[in-house]
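Lab meeting, item 3. Inverse folding demo.
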C-alpha cells in the first residue's frame, strides 16, 4: 500500500537526521563580525520624441437637402399611406404565425444538460493550520495553508525558529524558513493521497538569506474506518544551501477541526557561503498543532 512505504521512508529520513553529528556553529551566522557595502546603479533611460504633423481637415461638399421635395408631389401622400398599410398587413400575419408556433423545448433542454455536465465545478479543498514545535534547545512556530483540487494543488509554509546563541551569551538566534510548492497527486482515493511537490524555499539566517529550489513528497492515509490519519512529508533544498525537512505524525479529524502531533527533524547547512567556513544545525523534536479543513 502506498501509505506504508511513505511511512517507512519518513521514519528512515527522520532517524538519519537525528543521527547527524553535532553542529560546529550556527547556520548562516558569521564566526567573526564583518560587514560589506553594496553599490547600486540605476540605468539611464533616453526618451526620443518626434513632432507629429496635424492632418488636413476634410473638405466639405455643399449639396442641397435630400428631404426637400417640390410642392407638386403633395398629391401623392394618400397613395404612400395606402401602400404602407398594405405592406404592414402580411408582416403582422407572419409575426403572429411565428409567435403561435410551439417552442422546441427538447433541443434546448438537451443542450442545457450537456453544458452543465461539461462545466461542472471541480471540488476544492482548503487546509489551514498552526503548530508549535520543540527543536533542539529552542522552539519554533509554524503555519501552513494548502489548496488542492482533484490532482493539482498549492502548498505554502512558514516556520520561525528561535535558538539560544552558540557563543554562550544570553542572545537568541532567529531563523525563518518559507516555502511555496505546487503539488501533484500520484495516487488519490477516498482513503488517502500521495503527492510529489516542487517549488522554491528561502532561509533567513542571522547574516545571510538563501533562496533556492525545493523538492518534496507527502502522503496521507486513513487508519481503517477511524477518523485518524497518518501523515508524512519530506522536503529538500540542494543548493545554494542544504536543507532537509522531514515530518511524521498523526492527525485526528473532528469535523472541520484537525488535531495533529508527531516528530519533526530539520537539517541546515550554509555550505560556507557566510565566511568561508561551514555552519550547520541538526535539530529535532515533537510538535503539536491545530488545523481547519473546508
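The presenter then showed the designed sequence:
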Amino acid at each position: 500500500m502506498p501509505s506504508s512505504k511513505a511511512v517507512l521512508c519518513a521514519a528512515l529520513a527522520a532517524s538519519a537526521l537525528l543521527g547527524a553529528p553535532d553542529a560546529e556553529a550556527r547556520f548562516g551566522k558569521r564566526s567573526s563580525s564583518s560587514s560589506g557595502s553594496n553599490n547600486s546603479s540605476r540605468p539611464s533611460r533616453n526618451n526620443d520624441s518626434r513632432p507629429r504633423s496635424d492632418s488636413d481637415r476634410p473638405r466639405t461638399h455643399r449639396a442641397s437637402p435630400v428631404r426637400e421635395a417640390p410642392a407638386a408631389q403633395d398629391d401623392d401622400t394618400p397613395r404612400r399611406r395606402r401602400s404602407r398599410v398594405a405592406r404592414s398587413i402580411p408582416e403582422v400575419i407572419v409575426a403572429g404565425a411565428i409567435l403561435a408556433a410551439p417552442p422546441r423545448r427538447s433541443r434546448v433542454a438537451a443542450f442545457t444538460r450537456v453544458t452543465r455536465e461539461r462545466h461542472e465545478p471541480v471540488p476544492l479543498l482548503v487546509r489551514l493550520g498552526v503548530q508549535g514545535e520543540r527543536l533542539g534547545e529552542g522552539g519554533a512556530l509554524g503555519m501552513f495553508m494548502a489548496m488542492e483540487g482533484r490532482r493539482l494543488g498549492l502548498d505554502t509554509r512558514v516556520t520561525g525558529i528561535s535558538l539560544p546563541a552558540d557563543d554562550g551569551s544570553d542572545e537568541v538566534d532567529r531563523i525563518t524558513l518559507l516555502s511555496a510548492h505546487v503539488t501533484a497527486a500520484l495516487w488519490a482515493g477516498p482513503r488517502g493521497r500521495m503527492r510529489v511537490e516542487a517549488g522554491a524555499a528561502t532561509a533567513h539566517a542571522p547574516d545571510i538569506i538563501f533562496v533556492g529550489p525545493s523538492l518534496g513528497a507527502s502522503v496521507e492515509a486513513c487508519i481503517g474506518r477511524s477518523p485518524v490519519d497518518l501523515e508524512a512529508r519530506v522536503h529538500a533544498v540542494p543548493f545554494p544551501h542544504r536543507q532537509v525537512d522531514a515530518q511524521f505524525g498523526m492527525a485526528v479529524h473532528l469535523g472541520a477541526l484537525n488535531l495533529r502531533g508527531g516528530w519533526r527533524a530539520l537539517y541546515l547547512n550554509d555550505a560556507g557561503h557566510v565566511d568561508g567556513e561551514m555552519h550547520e544545525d541538526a535539530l529535532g523534536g515533537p510538535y503539536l498543532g491545530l488545523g481547519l479543513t473546508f
